[in-house]
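Entry — protein

Goal — fold tokens:
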Amino acid sequence: MRPPIRPRTRRPTRRPTHRPTHQPTPRPTRQPIRRPTRPPTRQPIRR
């Protein structure tokens, strides 16, 4: 025994509320790790 087929009721189409595009919270930019600068090592003069 099948239940009687119910006529399809029209559901009111929900309009999406226009909301501003969600911007992700900006990540704080990681500062590059400043390595202590070493003076260039003097290359011994190869003879």
In short: The mean pLDDT is 73. The CA atoms of residues 31 and 37 lie 16 Å apart. The radius of gyration is 35 Å.
